[in-house]
């Protein structure tokens, strides 16, 4: 949430700052602002284009900071937009996170005669820094942060010290980019790719002083830290639309490549198993775990639910799936024979990160499944799996979700072969996984057909999704996508739960999307569809190619290829993503930037 970008170097800062904000707009688009040394601050409510319209054509300064906001404290407005300034008007700050004790800090500052103009916790923070300022911005920031409770990724500058930017991290990401024309800061490495691939990730509790050609990192307590730069693997082209109408459509069409990259080097064809190098250092501990907890939020949680079915069916290990926002608070007991797997695209999801510490305190083995190398969760867990999905720009997760499901299939194969799965069955799964990218391409060829069906249903106000076994959590994910990008009220249920209450809502104006692959619960799903038809609700069926029965009970059918049962949910989710996308487009909505949402939820 919230995008932070900064530059200090030898070139004009304003073009860099604006470009960085455009790349980071998926992290928040309620308002935006920039500060450039020698010019001052410019802010605007609304998207980046509103800020761009207000910028003078030739801003000369060579250092500055910028911010695009997802509102937490205070409504979206120019008044509440970042950067915020201290009482002197000479110190400016941009911030991502939540200062939990801002009210008591604000009261203490008010006693000193300090006044406030916004509704934000960020203004309190910068005025706290200003109250400590005695000519050393680094020290003033360090003293202020010692008084703060909460989360932050921040950048602060002083007009008295134009040759430095101070940045700090606690719970919200900050990355330094080391470039030829100067140094950069960002809340996401994707914003740095056009300038440099050499990055330095700050850890929690670290603060850095950045100049045009150097940086120094210390802790908030003043201890010096040695940080090594890393190379980001992603290409700049990955954060460009490349001719697609929306990032969301581009990222869905990258699904075959994403699956291929997730599988690359991880299939052992000779032994019929998976090679997960990130887990090798804890392989002996994994062999003896008796229970697995999967923790995630949003789409990552639903990926975990699919993973539960995969792992219990093929690896014969009991699995519990928990919401990160709840797991961190529930009563949990020490268990050295359990492992906890944390799923997060960004690797920075606040509630999931907090749950890592909870599991560690319970003496569990901690594992991660993340997409961003160097992210907080990747560094904090004992071992893990990288998705290798590349950067995902659209707010609604598509390709990262598909990568997560593919990684769970690999885990089911890996753990299954450790726990009694025959080599023959393992070889069948390996063969199916090798064919999966081509299968995803076959699904994408149905894009135009799916668009026609979606357009037919775009004007409905309500929708229900149903599925069974592996496809029950896929129904939930499909409904979530429709809610996110079309604002249609969508619910999801296991098919057998319809008659236990939800069927009361169905009528001719409440369509149902049923996921009906030809599997061992096919007849049960047909019965559920008949129950829906008896209430006159329109039915869209997602069915297996060659199914001759389904058209007799559904108003519209979207067909998908038949694959190994382990992989069927991976194939099923892509048509649901395309359906949601085309509904949103038919309604004239910005599907890349759904209202009220942000890409990476780094606040609690």
CATH class of the largest domain: Alpha Beta
User: What value does the average pLDDT take?
Assistant: 92
* Unreliable residue runs: none
Task: Tally the structural domains.
Answer: 3
Please outline the major beta sheet: 8 strands, antiparallel
Number of strands: 27
Multimerization status: single chain
Percentage of β-strand residues: 15-25%
Give the overall shape.
Answer: globular
Q: List the strand order in the largest sheet.
A: 3-2-4-1-10-9-11-15
By CATH, the architecture of the largest domain is named 4-Layer Sandwich
Tell me the helix content: 25-40%
What is the radius of gyration computed over CA atoms, rounded to a whole number of angstroms?
25 Å
CATH superfamily of the largest domain: Aminohydrolase, N-terminal nucleophile (Ntn) domain
Verbal overview:
The protein is α/β, with parallel strands linked by helices. It is 35% helix and 23% strand. It folds into three domains: 230 residues, Glutamine Phosphoribosylpyrophosphate, subunit 1, domain 1, CATH 3.60.20.10; 208 residues, 3-Layer(aba) Sandwich (Rossmann fold), CATH 3.40.50.10490; 147 residues, Glucose-6-phosphate isomerase like protein, domain 1 (Rossmann fold, 3-Layer(aba) Sandwich), CATH 3.40.50.10490. Helix 3 crosses helix 4 and helix 9 packs parallel to helix 13. The protein is globular and about 75 Å long.
């Amino acid at each position: 949430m919230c995008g932070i970008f900064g530059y200090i170097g030898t070139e004009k800062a304003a073009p860099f700052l604006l470009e960085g904000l455009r790349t980071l707009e998926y992290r928040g688009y309620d308002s935006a602002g920039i500060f450039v040394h020698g010019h001052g601050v410019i802010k605007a409510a609304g998207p980046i284009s509103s800020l761009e319209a207000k910028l003078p054509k030739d801003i000369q300064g060579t250092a500055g900071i910028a911010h695009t906001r997802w509102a937490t404290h205070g409504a979206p407005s120019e008044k509440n937009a970042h950067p915020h300034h201290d009482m002197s008007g000479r110190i400016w700050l941009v911030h991502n996170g939540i200062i939990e004790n801002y009210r008591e800090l604000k009261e203490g500052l008010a006693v000193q005669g300090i006044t406030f103009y916004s509704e934000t916790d960020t203004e309190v923070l910068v005025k706290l820094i200003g109250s400590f300022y005695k000519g050393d911005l680094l020290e003033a920031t360090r003293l202020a942060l010692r008084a703060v409770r909460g989360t932050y990724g921040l950048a602060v500058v002083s007009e008295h010290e134009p040759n430095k930017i101070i940045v700090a991290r606690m719970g919200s990401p900050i990355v330094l980019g080391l470039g030829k024309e100067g140094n950069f800061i960002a809340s996401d490495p994707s914003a740095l790719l056009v300038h440099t691939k050499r990055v330095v990730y700050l850890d929690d509790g670290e603060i850095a002083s950045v100049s045009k050609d150097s940086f120094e990192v210390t802790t908030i307590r003043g201890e010096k830290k040695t940080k090594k730069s890393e190379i980001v693997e992603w290409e700049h082209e990955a954060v460009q639309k490349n001719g697609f109408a929306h990032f969301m459509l581009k990222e869905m069409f990258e699904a075959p490549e994403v699956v291929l990259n997730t599988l690359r080097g991880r299939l052992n064809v000779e032994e019929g198993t998976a090679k997960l190098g990130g887990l090798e250092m804890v392989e002996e501990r994994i062999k003896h775990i008796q229970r697995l907890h999967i923790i995630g939020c949003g789409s990552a949680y639903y990926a975990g639910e699919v993973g539960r079915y995969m792992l219990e069916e093929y690896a014969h290990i009991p699995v519990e799936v928990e919401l990160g926002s709840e797991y961190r608070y529930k009563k949990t007991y020490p268990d050295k024979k359990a492992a906890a797997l944390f799923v997060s695209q960004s690797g920075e999801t606040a509630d999931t990160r907090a749950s890592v510490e909870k599991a560690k305190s319970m003496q569990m083995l901690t594992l991660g499944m993340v997409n961003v190398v160097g992210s907080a969760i990747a560094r904090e867990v004992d071992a893990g799996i990288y998705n290798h999905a590349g950067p995902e720009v659209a707010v609604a997760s598509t390709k990262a979700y598909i990568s997560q499901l593919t990684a769970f299939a690999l885990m089911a194969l890996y753990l299954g072969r450790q726990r009694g799965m025959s080599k023959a069955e393992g070889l069948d799964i390996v063969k199916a996984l090798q064919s999966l990218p081509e299968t995803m391409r076959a699904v994408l060829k149905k894009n135009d057909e799916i668009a026609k069906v979606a357009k037919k249903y775009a004007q409905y106000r309500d929708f229900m999704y149903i599925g069974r076994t592996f496809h029950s959590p896929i129904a939930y994910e499909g409904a979530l996508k429709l809610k996110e990008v079309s604002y249609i009220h969508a619910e999801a249920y296991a098919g057998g739960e319809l008659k236990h209450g939800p069927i009361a809502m169905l009528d001719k104006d409440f369509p149902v999307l049923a996921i009906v692959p030809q599997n061992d619960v096919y007849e049960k799903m047909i019965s559920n569809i008949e129950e829906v038809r008896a209430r006159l609700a329109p039915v869209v069926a997602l069915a297996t190619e060659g199914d001759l029965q389904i058209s007799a009970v559904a108003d519209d059918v979207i067909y998908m290829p038949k694959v190994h049962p382990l992989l069927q949910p991976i194939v099923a989710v892509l048509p649901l993503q395309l359906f949601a996308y085309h509904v949103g487009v038919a309604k004239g909505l910005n599907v890349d930037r759904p209202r009220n949402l942000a890409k990476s939820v780094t606040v609690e």
